[in-house]
Amino acid sequence: MNAETTSRIPVALTIAGSDSGGGAGIQADLRTFAFHCVHGTSAITCVTAQNTLGVTRVDAIPPEAVIAQMQAVCEDIGVQAAKTGMLLNKEIIAAVAQQVEALQIHNLVVDPVMVSRVGAQLIDDEAVNTLCHTLIPLAAIATPNRYEAQILSGLEINTLDDMRKCAQIIHEKFKAKVVLVKGGGMSGSGRGVDVWFDGQKLETLSVKQVETKNTHGTGCTLSAAIAANLARGDDLFTAVQQAKEYVTNALSYALNIGQGQGPVGHFYPLLLTTNH
């Protein structure tokens, strides 16, 4: 491969936190980018001490440092798509939103990390408000989980119809271009079923269910896969469909490591003939 060929490799940017356990955040995003043959760049927003059992410490990166990382990447390398993950506080969120506009970052996937898939709120109400009104309107797609969608819409989600209503409310309320309400936190037949709404098309997207306790990083991985597919030139709906298929395969080869919830198998083809 010559220099001219390598220069055409698509580039994606993840703006998110570091997971010391390697299952989610920046680490999951970069592995997902690499799997999709996309060069991964990063702007780290916070550093966490965590493992398969949980998070024991979180340290925020100064907003100025987050800005500097984004500028360094975009002004030299350039990006074809970007995603956001854990942004931690209102100052970081506001700084990221300002830079998305200033650097003219398109194909932005916003994973509005505010509540875990088991319902624990991760950022305060001021940060949630800033995220809703400054960053979501800039997104090509927002990918809230069940509990995040409940906060954004003000509705409780118990059924597929509830998910549909929430997607429509979030789209209208925050001027989101596309909303993908994820059903990973649902029970029974609703688990793993996502709802897409773009203002006109209301679609239910489903894949086979995978029975595993090792699901750490699925939200990060899905949004990173969508960004990677956008960077490669896919249209948004195709990018989402392919990302869901990728996550399903990665869940099928999830890693049984640690004493708690292990991560998905991002490089699952390499795990096909190994014991894990």
UniProtKB/TrEMBL annotation:
One Gene Ontology MF term: ATP binding
Statement: the UniProt record of this protein carries the keyword Nucleotide-binding: yes
InterPro entries membership: HMP/HMP-P_kinase_dom, PM/HMP-P_kinase-1, Ribokinase-like
This protein's pathway: Cofactor biosynthesis; thiamine diphosphate biosynthesis; 4-amino-2-methyl-5-diphosphomethylpyrimidine from 5-amino-1-(5-phospho-D-ribosyl)imidazole: step 3/3
Pfam family, one: Phos_pyr_kin
GO cellular component: cytosol
Domain Pyridoxamine kinase/Phosphomethylpyrimidine kinase residues, every copy: 19-264
SUPFAM superfamilies, sorted: Ribokinase-like
Keyword Transferase attached: yes
Lineage: superkingdom: Bacteria
Gene Ontology terms: biological process: thiamine biosynthetic process
Catalysed transformations (reactions): 4-amino-5-hydroxymethyl-2-methylpyrimidine + ATP = 4-amino-2-methyl-5-(phosphooxymethyl)pyrimidine + ADP + H(+); 4-amino-2-methyl-5-(phosphooxymethyl)pyrimidine + ATP = 4-amino-2-methyl-5-(diphosphooxymethyl)pyrimidine + ADP
Sorted UniProt keywords: ATP-binding, Kinase, Nucleotide-binding, Thiamine biosynthesis, Transferase
Protein name: Bifunctional hydroxymethylpyrimidine kinase/phosphomethylpyrimidine kinase
Organism annotation: Fischerella thermalis CCMEE 5268
